[in-house]
Amino acid sequence: MAALTVEKTAGGREYKVKDLSQADFGRMEIEIAEVEMPGLMASREEFGPKQPLKGVKITGSLHMTVQTAVLIETLTALGAQVRWCSCNIFSTQDHAAAAIARDSAAVFAWKGETLEEYWWCTERAIDWGSDGAGPDMIVDDGGDVTLLIHEGVKAEELYEKNGTLPDPSSTTVAEFRIVLSTIRESIMKNPRRFRDIAKNISGVSEETTTGVKRLYAMERSSELLFPAINVNDSVTKCKFDNLYGCRHSLPDGLMRATDVMIAGKVGVVCGYGDVGKGCAAALKNAGARVIVTEIDPICALQAVMEGFQVLTLEDCVEYGDIFVTTTGNKDIIMLKHMIRMKNNAVVCNIGHFDNEIDLVGLESHPAAKKTTIKPQTDRWVFSETGRGVILLAEGRLMNLGCGTGHPSFVMSCSFTNQVIAQLELWTERGTGKYQKKVYVLPKHLDEKVAALHLPKLGVKLTKLTEEQAAYINVPVDGPFKPAHYRY
Amino acid sequence: MAALTVEKTAGGREYKVKDLSQADFGRMEIEIAEVEMPGLMASREEFGPKQPLKGVKITGSLHMTVQTAVLIETLTALGAQVRWCSCNIFSTQDHAAAAIARDSAAVFAWKGETLEEYWWCTERAIDWGSDGAGPDMIVDDGGDVTLLIHEGVKAEELYEKNGTLPDPSSTTVAEFRIVLSTIRESIMKNPRRFRDIAKNISGVSEETTTGVKRLYAMERSSELLFPAINVNDSVTKCKFDNLYGCRHSLPDGLMRATDVMIAGKVGVVCGYGDVGKGCAAALKNAGARVIVTEIDPICALQAVMEGFQVLTLEDCVEYGDIFVTTTGNKDIIMLKHMIRMKNNAVVCNIGHFDNEIDLVGLESHPAAKKTTIKPQTDRWVFSETGRGVILLAEGRLMNLGCGTGHPSFVMSCSFTNQVIAQLELWTERGTGKYQKKVYVLPKHLDEKVAALHLPKLGVKLTKLTEEQAAYINVPVDGPFKPAHYRY
Amino acid sequence: MAALTVEKTAGGREYKVKDLSQADFGRMEIEIAEVEMPGLMASREEFGPKQPLKGVKITGSLHMTVQTAVLIETLTALGAQVRWCSCNIFSTQDHAAAAIARDSAAVFAWKGETLEEYWWCTERAIDWGSDGAGPDMIVDDGGDVTLLIHEGVKAEELYEKNGTLPDPSSTTVAEFRIVLSTIRESIMKNPRRFRDIAKNISGVSEETTTGVKRLYAMERSSELLFPAINVNDSVTKCKFDNLYGCRHSLPDGLMRATDVMIAGKVGVVCGYGDVGKGCAAALKNAGARVIVTEIDPICALQAVMEGFQVLTLEDCVEYGDIFVTTTGNKDIIMLKHMIRMKNNAVVCNIGHFDNEIDLVGLESHPAAKKTTIKPQTDRWVFSETGRGVILLAEGRLMNLGCGTGHPSFVMSCSFTNQVIAQLELWTERGTGKYQKKVYVLPKHLDEKVAALHLPKLGVKLTKLTEEQAAYINVPVDGPFKPAHYRY
Amino acid sequence: MAALTVEKTAGGREYKVKDLSQADFGRMEIEIAEVEMPGLMASREEFGPKQPLKGVKITGSLHMTVQTAVLIETLTALGAQVRWCSCNIFSTQDHAAAAIARDSAAVFAWKGETLEEYWWCTERAIDWGSDGAGPDMIVDDGGDVTLLIHEGVKAEELYEKNGTLPDPSSTTVAEFRIVLSTIRESIMKNPRRFRDIAKNISGVSEETTTGVKRLYAMERSSELLFPAINVNDSVTKCKFDNLYGCRHSLPDGLMRATDVMIAGKVGVVCGYGDVGKGCAAALKNAGARVIVTEIDPICALQAVMEGFQVLTLEDCVEYGDIFVTTTGNKDIIMLKHMIRMKNNAVVCNIGHFDNEIDLVGLESHPAAKKTTIKPQTDRWVFSETGRGVILLAEGRLMNLGCGTGHPSFVMSCSFTNQVIAQLELWTERGTGKYQKKVYVLPKHLDEKVAALHLPKLGVKLTKLTEEQAAYINVPVDGPFKPAHYRY
Predict the structure, then answer these.
(1) Partner-chain contact A260 D371, CB within 8 Å
(2) Cα angle value D357/D360/D361 (rounded, 5°)
(3) Which residue of B231, B324, C454, D366 has the fewest CB atoms within a 10 Å radius of its CB?
(4) How open is the CA angle C281-C283-C285, to the nearest 5 degrees?
(5) CB contact under 8 A, B305 and D287
(6) Residues C50-71: tens digit of each pLDDT
(7) Cβ atoms of C301 and D454 closer than 8 Å
(8) Binding of NAD(+): at which residues (chains A, B, C, D) (predicted)?
(9) ipTM reported for the complex, 2 dp
(10) What is the pTM of this model?
(11) pLDDT tens sequence across B167-181
């Protein structure tokens, strides 16, 4: 990696983006997005005057898009100072990054980072000063900032105990090797840094299923170092962003990357969780025949009730036209599958991590040759068959790599949860309400997030009478459902 | 009410049905249903040989349909003795009742009971002998058997305390007046009967949202007298029966009752829970434009994301063509609404109780005149406007009153949960596993119910590898999701 | 056949129906249907005062349903005298027949006629007096009245030429044998009857694809004896009744006959014309996976663009759950197919004639045994496999045999075309406008039919400005499209 | 306009494109498109060896996209020489133009032409040599080449008659002014040029509704100078490209231009022809509530049967979120409408010409200010309200201006019709089969186009038996439908 240098705005704020001159374009798109993000704008109105996050240092690691820009500026409107990186090497919108860098926060992100650059950006985002100070709170997506700090603390403790430094060569996972290098260098400079950082953190609010799984695992093993709010499992997040966001952004990404006609094709969707449901619906609505693969019999039964055929990948790999992984698991579409596919079958992933598709297998297969059609759209040809597959975004989140991610409106639901979570964590710091555990926002806040988004869509809610509320045993103003309600 | 007399089969089993000669027809439909109810048939295969319910006395109060017949005969195949009544005055399929009465269990049910007859049947179902013996377990739907026993116990205790007998004239609710009369007469015969019954009961498994709400209220107030399993909130019940069942049976009932063309019409669905989601989807799929009314902002936002307009009933009452209540609440469509509706607007309810539609208001309105087109299809004309509305099933469950209810396959999911719940309650009686509380079946049993229904639909599940299972931190064979997962 | 006798009303009008006492019930349903049939009611208003069909004798052969009753009474409201029979042995709604017989027209129809009874009814409908007088005009559906008259004329001419009488034993087609017997007896009584009848007829308006095909064949061979208006190919008929009518009535018939859950099943729709499109959409919307069979590559390509798989019946016969024939062709689902089907696969036809399904093969197969579940729902078991199929309506139109056919609103579109066609034929008789050929109604009348149905559905049409009309070169008030436009 | 100069390849072929260095990228996308265009590739295989278009000079005016590149190279594979321009100033894909210019044909097209440049390109495309020679045949889309030649001939005749030259100042339509200038200059150079060109032309095949309307008008007024094949009204064109193409490309264009979330929004589709049907379906499928505006009562009734509300634009202009014009008419969304719209309502056109939306009104309104967000995405703010609308592609075809147009597969259907039409016109030149009239391809060729596209989608067609074919009176191999069949 060529040495990266932090730049500074005229006002002295640090940043590293692709091209600051795109800031005006970014600002225009941010302004348009604001009209589509009523929850965030309402939060500015409601909370802004009291400045509840006055001076709070927030580090965010979340796709640096136009929508995220509106989130960042909502946090700053509430008084926060913000440093930001993207949580995916392909997902930054450079004009949005430029606008934020120029106007609002310290941004370290560009579309098409290398893995080394990615972790450099992540480290910049948590570095709040030459003395190694860290953030007061974290906004995380996938959990990489949380991971870095937790791994850092573990390594420091081991180092303190027996002088062992992290050994990058101990792992074959390319990305984790970089994490270990980063920590190793940090320890050599300041062997207490991550522990100081962790101690100062009031909490993290985590955006996505993958990161949440990591948090629950840490909670179970009592390794969690600060409170966490699981934003992903707010109903107004997982049943909206994951479902309706993907229903929108999967075809968007497919069209931008390949222009392939979806109608008449066979789409194969691996996984029928919220993301899979959105993807399957999108392909069906576009005129494809959709086959679902599932491990969970309940989700499989849901799929079949919606008219989808449920098969294993082995059954349909030879006649599928478009393959999408949505599982959150690993090793879903392997080299052996891709070799058997039709010529120019499209293969892509919309799950958080890139290990659903066997890119490693492709890259190490001697008979596979890559041609880049355009950025994020590669054709891999197998010399043994002469056929090729079209792989999107190198197996990373195709909707962000090949498109612009989820649209503003649905992100407003998710991000209003983030704002509320940050407010909760900060306001309740030191009150004992949040321990070193994982929490979901209470239902009345979830309902509030929804309510903030209804007027924009012309919705008129019905009001319960006192008698009706008593009859079904809920408050007149909600919450309206028991905790276990599934929506 | 004319005196009702219990009849007996040649073998001496009690019953009261419309026409025993329909038993052959009932049997044929039961046999066809068996092919569509793989979960129940698999339960017979798996558990039948061991006779785990040998001699157990089960009282059921649940729509006496063909599908319920297969449930009853699954319980008897596992060794149980069964007495049954319907939980709705219109929902019995007389041929199914006849077949069961002749072949398998004591049945007290017919289509078109009066309220007095309904409660007579209910009391017959819990009467297991001249000594006032009650059942070992209850299968309940809406909770009327549970209610009767709990109210009975309360009344007996009050009577023992101060000699007060229940006073039917103390209530204006016609149905509750009958309940009080029933209990009053029981106390005068045997002032300990309901307490003896309650003490003997190992538990109840409750089928539906409405009954579950009652149970949780009793749990909260510590009044619950025996353990309860909430079958409704098994995923394989509420997300299938409530949703896909209603998606099927709403148009079925509408067509049988009115033959009205749904395409091109404006459908108004009050409530967007699981039942409302199924109803709205059905009307949309049939070509209607659908308007949803909701109190809950989250459900409202879901509706609008699916393309439905969300308004209040007041907004659309004048141009809606078909109105369906699905709320589980009361006082949804009132007289004042019906007077404003278009001529021949169809008004119906698919929620458990009949108080969603203001039948009382209609009946007491001097200017409203009823003409019965055919059973369960009445036209009410308002002399002040000359317009009329078509009211289905007198405001009771229209899919059971005007049609045959949910189809076998989806009821197999629900009823397999019932069988498993009954097995749990019985097998674990006295082990302390189930207290006087409300329980949901564990996820692995929920997943098992789903799995039993997949082969019939040609589904091929994917198997996790050990590595994948470890990666997402679940057992290879499930359960695959955390408890809070919403599907 | 037991001798059938014509009955007479108090007023002396002839009829033969199942049960005249159902007339009140029929009347109520007719009144409800009137609200749903705005085109017919508007025709009464517009044309009634001038009595354009004053004294005209119209014979109709068209499913004697509630909707047809509104058609008949529209014709009588315009002054016509009407005699009517059904065009299908299972399609009569007996209460509708009773109401019409009592109040409006001579009806000869009941649900469940034998073939002999069917043709007896048909002959009654064309018999306008003891002198053998026939009708002035015909409303036909499938062309049986037209066929009878044309075959009659041919036979009379042959008889006149060489004394040959029709020989019923010359054909193996059971139904045609009865036609020949009927004509034979007629010739023996009056060897000029059919020729006299034909000469008097001003024209026929034909309802359906099948009848239209027959008419065009007769036109091509110059055998057509009077003008014919092809109502089927009015856009407001074929693209509405055939498509949206079947989308409604296929699931209706399936549910009434079998209560089978459609969701999750594999539906196989043979033929993807207008009827097939409606059926495939209905099954898909109900949650089935749908496979289409087609001979026409264009229709096949349409099917696949809508997400349907297109296979041959051989490919999918073993895993389909519900099979529907819509082809208008013969020999679609044969015995050999049914033997291979899953146990309790549902087999039905929604095309005009019953020869799409091999009932003959079933009946003659020694190892096939029929059990009637209920009228129009038979289970045929094959002893060689132990499996059975459920055959609806003996292979005849299942939506009319097992349900009540298409709903009123869409039939109002079709039947308003019929009324306009009858008016055209009568008004223009003798003007030379209509020769012995097949005609389609002009587009402005087609558009008028549509326009009459819009206010009921709340539609507000946009008006062209003069400039816009000139720009696209159409009159301001239409017609708006060229003749070849496909909609 | 700065003077434009024709460039030449090393081989001497003329061209004018944006950037020839994009040819490699264009070539890769062309190769991917070939896999998706089975009809064109099959045409190369079937006809290529005989070189039926050997040496034929073809001028094309049709969006210069990747798909068109495959059409051009199919024509050259059959022996033709080709000169090409785009038929829309925004629709060229520059990399496709580069690849064709380098490898196959003379191309004059780039994305973002001025109107002057557009007509310069058009004139280059018809100029086959210094002696003013014209093409042998035309491929036209919208009819601009045909218009130029017909207007040229008219002007030459007038000039010959009385020396009058075309007067650009005689029209206020900016574009027609340029046409007149072009012709004026041509006459001054060579007053017989357009007549010579016209005389030499064997025919034109026209792609789209708009161009076809012009042709029929010329046929009616006997002004047509050469035979025309109406490709638009092949079923495999208008019911596929117009419908399924737009269903795909409308959301694609919306997403690329605005990233707006479609779900939950109110979409207003002006016109419910094939294009409108595709657009309405796309918005509905994406979760929008859709309102249709229509002038034709039949199309309006179709819309309402599909669940769409039908209103006038005036009714819904204030609450619509996304407005799409599809009418083929003019003056649909006017300034007065746009002023009343919600802030950031999206306004776009997918019809052929840009006069559906009142750009002229916007540009001349003093209080309207334009901000360009990015190319083809402008925000127009009205100072009197502070609200703005987002106008796509300056009112031109938004799917080509903001996206990449229709996907390859559906264009393969359309373009295979073009190839067959060109073959017909050339093979039958001088045989008298085609007069100076407008023709539609015969049904067997239409069916052939469909058939060529089925294998790619895994379709298996059913074959008629001889008996079945006889029964429905069609040849075993088709054509299967009468000419008036609507599909």
Answers:
(1) no
(2) 85
(3) D366
(4) 65
(5) yes
(6) 999 999 999 999 999 999 999 9
(7) yes
(8) 208-210, 273-278, 294, 350-352, 399, 406
(9) 0.95
(10) 0.96
(11) 999 998 889 999 999
